[in-house]
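Session log. Operator J.P. requested a structure for one protein chain; no other inputs attached. Running the standard single-chain path with token output.
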Amino acid sequence: MYNLNETLKSVYANLGLGVKRRFPTMYAFGPTGLPAGRIGEAVPDAVATTAGPTTLTADIMKARFYRRNCSGADRTDTTPTAALWVRSLINPPVGLSYIWSVYNNGGANIITIAAGSGVTLTVTTGSAVTAAVGAIRNYRVTFTNVTPGSEAVEMLAT
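Structure written below.
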């Protein structure tokens, strides 16, 4: 883990300035450069080979890249509820947005992504919520409401 606070102390010491002042507490940063506990915090790709539909976890959604082998038939995977998704993050701001991708890496079957409670799935012209074999489908995920009891997430298939 990269600790920005320790790095600032080291820089001041190397410049001969000493560490005469207190540094504010800062986030420890993972290899992706995002604060730990946030989206993309050095989470490995999520992989599923379940022979059946899957309810995706918030951790899978935070991984930002989901590899799915359909195991012999078309599959429909459902996102977590907006409430679970929001609670999995550390104080996410309204408008927090990132790209989440699905890669269909097995068989001649189709993956369909379905929206969990509080999640709105929107499709742009020419795209779909499905991913054919060998295809990657991208979604822009945006947190539109983070108020407890009213959480809302929008996924735009691009």
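Operator note: Confidence is low (pLDDT under 50) at residues 15-43.
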